[in-house]
Structures are given as C-alpha cells and as structure tokens.
Design goal:
Elements lengths: L7 H10 L15 E6 L3 H4 L8 H5 L1 H14 L2 E7 L5 H4 L3 H4 L2 H11 L19 E5 L12 H7 L4 E7 L1 H14 L3 E10 L3 H15 L1 E3 L1 H8 L1
Parallel strand pairs: 1-2, 1-4, 2-3, 4-5, 5-6
Helix pairs in contact: 1-10, 4-11, 9-10
Length: 225
C-alpha cells in the first residue's frame, strides 16, 4: 500500500480556498453517489504485464469494502475499463508520440475486447446491479471517451468517488473532468494506486488543493453509513 502524504501546504491552500475547511463535502448522499473503479484490469494488475502496477493489487480489498458499503447505502458501483482498438492509431495518433509503437501495440493487444489483459481482476467483487463502462481515453469523461456522464446524470447522481489505477493518469484525469462537469468529487487515498509513492502523492496533492476531497477508505465508509 502506498504511504500517502498530503502536505501541510496542500492543506493550507485547500483551507484558504474553502473558507477554513479542509474538505469541501462534509456530507455525502449515498443515493446520489457513484463509486468509479478505474482500470482495475488484468493489464494493470497481472504480474509480468507491460503496464503492471503492483500496488494496484493491494487496494483491491479497500475497493471491495467501498463497493459493498455504497451498495448497502443505495448508491451505484461503476467498473470503468479501458478498451482500445486499431482506430486509436488514427483518432488518437498523438499517443504514438508519447509511447513507443511497441508499447501501443501491447496496449491494443491486451486491452482490446477479448485481449488477455482486458478483463477485470478476478478478486474484485462485482454484482449484477453494478455498471460496466468502457472508455477509450485516459479520462472517462472527456468527450467521446464513454457514456459515463450521460448515465450518471440520467440516474440523478451528483457525487463520484474515484478509485483505481493509475492515480496520476486515468484516475486523476477522470477526477479533474468530473469536477469540471459539476460532480462533487472525492478521491480515496488508499484505494488508488500508481507506479510509486511519489507519483501517487503528487497526484493526490494536486487534487486536494482544488479539484477534490482526498480521504481514506475508512473515512468514506463512515460517511456512507
């Protein structure tokens, strides 16, 4: 599990913006809340995969606890999974400037439908009433990535809890866009995972300053109950 460190300067900056309060959302209405579980797929969790995030396996119990608590409280659990195909080379060609062709090929091979790494990690506890949403960009909310925003707003959901991997990539970009689409946004410090403690904490501190509340699994479960 990552050693989370929210810096004092981050806390001070958040309090300054929020009129002395560290957190923006003191109360959560579970019936209007969705738990977004980002990219907890075999490609990111399976040992030996090109995009393996070892710490992501360690957050599975916390994600399962959060999902169980939210379901019992009347909220919605959403499994968000990346799904790429060959079209990415044309409609997201800049990716080839940021990743090698070999790494892009590995992503497409593994996280296309039917790919070895596409499925959710088997230790995750998924139930029939949960949603599964596919996205084709790092953020689940950017235009054209998925239908997540539409489904959440149709269900009268105004709050999202962000968990999954990687903290500093798909989780952070999804959380930033969620806030700017007018969702109350909370990131769970010990239910997100990145490639290192530094990457994890850099993302959480950036989010805690302005975009979201950053709290623990236990704190969120207490709010839900």
């Amino acid at each position: 599990m990552h050693k989370t460190e929210i810096l004092q300067k981050t806390i001070d900056a958040a309090k300054k913006r929020r009129g002395g309060k560290r957190h923006a959302f003191s109360e959560i209405n579970p019936a209007k809340t969705a738990l977004l579980v980002i990219d907890m797929q075999k490609y990111f969790l399976e040992p030996g995969m090109a995009a393996e995030v070892p710490q992501a396996r360690e957050i599975v119990p916390n994600i399962n606890r959060l999902a169980d608590s939210l379901r019992k409280a009347g909220g919605q659990v959403v499994w968000v999974i990346t799904t790429f195909d060959e079209n990415i080379y044309e409609n997201w060609s800049v990716l080839l400037k940021l990743f090698s062709r070999e790494r892009c090929d590995a992503m497409i091979e593994n996280i296309s439908k039917g790919g070895e790494g596409h499925g959710l990690w088997p230790d995750l506890e998924i139930e029939e009433d949960d949603w599964t949403i596919e996205k084709n960009r790092f953020s689940a909310f950017i235009g054209g990535s998925s239908n997540l925003e539409e489904k959440l707003k149709k269900a009268d959901i105004d709050t999202v809890i962000i968990t999954g991997t990687l903290t500093d990539v798909c989780c952070e970009t999804t959380a930033r866009d969620a806030m700017m689409l007018n969702f109350k946004t909370v990131m769970i410090a010990d239910a997100n995972a990145a490639g290192s403690d530094e990457d994890h904490n850099d993302a959480l501190n950036a989010m805690a300053r302005l975009f979201a509340d950053v709290i623990s699994t236990d704190e969120m479960i207490e709010k839900l109950s």
